[in-house]
Design brief:
Strand content: under 5%
Shape: globular
Largest sheet: none
Length: about 190
C-alpha cells in the first residue's frame, strides 16, 4: 500500500510539473506576454530547471526547445522512478530506449490533456462567467486551435461547437496514445 501511495504522489508531482512545462512552451509559441500574471506563475514554477538548458540550447523562433526537452526529461524521470518504486531496482539498460520513446508519448499525452482542460475550462467559463480575468488568456491560448475548426463547421448562429470538437479530438488522441503506449511498452 505504501508503494501505491508513493507511486501516486510521484505520478501526480511529475505530471503536474510536465503539464506546467507544456503550458510554458505553449505560452511561448503563442507569444503570450511574459508579464501576464499567469505567465509569471508558470515561469517561476519552471525556471529553475529550464533556465540552465536555455543557456546551452537557446530558444527557437516559435518553439521553446529547452522547455520541451525539460518536459521530456521530466517524463523520462517519471518512468524510471516509477519503475524503481514498483520493482525496487533500476531498469535494465535495454529498456532505456523504449522508456525514452514512452516518455515522448507521455509528453504528447500531457499536451493533449492540457488542450482538453483549457478548452473545457474556457467553455464552462464562457457560460458561467465570460468576464472572468483568465478568459483573455484562455482565449489567446485556444484561438489557434479553434479557428481552423470554426472554418470547417457550419455557422450555427450563437452556438459554437468548435470547443466540443476540440475536446473530442484531444480525448481521442489521448486514448490512441495510451493504447499505443500500453501495447508497445506495457506502460
Amino acid at each position: 500500500m505504501f508503494s501505491d501511495a508513493l507511486q501516486f504522489l510521484i505520478n501526480l508531482i511529475f505530471s503536474l510539473f510536465g503539464i506546467a512545462l507544456i503550458v510554458r512552451a505553449w505560452l511561448y509559441a503563442i507569444r503570450m506576454h511574459p508579464f501576464n500574471p499567469y505567465s509569471q506563475a508558470i515561469l517561476k514554477l519552471t525556471d529553475w530547471l529550464v533556465r540552465p538548458l536555455q543557456k546551452v540550447l537557446g530558444t527557437g523562433n516559435r518553439i521553446d526547445w529547452p522547455t520541451l526537452l525539460t518536459c521530456w526529461l521530466t517524463a523520462f524521470a517519471l518512468l524510471i522512478l516509477s519503475f524503481v518504486v514498483g520493482t525496487g531496482q533500476l531498469p535494465p539498460t535495454s529498456s532505456l530506449l523504449p522508456a525514452a520513446l514512452a516518455a515522448l508519448l507521455s509528453v504528447f499525452k500531457w499536451a493533449f490533456n492540457v488542450v482538453l482542460w483549457i478548452t473545457l475550462v474556457q467553455a464552462i467559463l464562457s457560460w458561467v462567467n465570460p468576464l472572468a480575468p483568465i478568459m483573455p488568456v484562455l482565449h489567446t491560448m485556444t484561438a489557434p486551435l479553434l479557428e481552423p475548426i470554426r472554418r470547417i463547421l457550419p455557422n450555427l448562429g450563437g452556438l459554437d461547437l468548435s470547443p466540443l470538437v476540440l475536446i473530442v479530438v484531444a480525448q481521442l488522441a489521448m486514448m490512441f496514445i495510451q493504447q499505443f503506449t500500453r501495447s508497445a511498452f506495457g506502460i
